[in-house]
């Protein structure tokens, strides 16, 4: 990522890895954790601040496999694994934008 954050006209935050898609909040039902996932490249951040840290992301499938939510070679039962809570908005991450001095770019 650079030192800027792309935000669409509705205030939805774009992926900081590749700016290729918007970031969604995904609830992991078995753990109750919420992770932050790009809708396009599936870059995944486990907390909202790490969205602003260089290279602090992992692929979604690798991540949920690493914590035992899916098994390689088995078809995931997505309805029991995740729930999509909608997009991440600029107001959700405003504290971290300020803390890291990120420039907001409206697209
Ligand atoms: Zn992405």
Task: Write a concise keyword list for the protein shown above.
107 residues; alpha+beta; five-stranded antiparallel β-sheet; two-stranded parallel ribbon; 7 strands; 17% helix; elongated; binds zinc ion
Would you mind describing this structure in some detail?
The chain has 107 residues and is an alpha+beta fold. It has one domain (4-106). It has helices at residues 60-66, 78-81, 94-100; strands at residues 4-7, 23-28, 33-38, 43-45, 58-59, 82-87, 103-106. A hairpin with a 4-residue loop joins strand 3 and strand 4 (43-45). The longest helix is centred in the middle third of the chain and has 7 residues, at 60-66. The two termini are 16 Å apart. Bound molecules: zinc ion. Zinc ion is lined by residues 15, 17-18, 20-21, 38, 40-41, 43.
Strand order across the largest sheet: 5-4-3-2-6
**H/I helix tally:** 3
Ligands present: zinc ion
3D shape: elongated
The fraction of residues in strands falls at 25-35%
Secondary-structure element order, as H and E?
EEEEEHHEHE
Low-pLDDT segments: none
Please state the oligomeric state of the protein chains shown. Answer: single chain
Helix content: 10-25%
Number of strands: 7
Biggest sheet, open or closed, and with what strands and sense? 5 strands, antiparallel
> Whole-number average pLDDT?
95
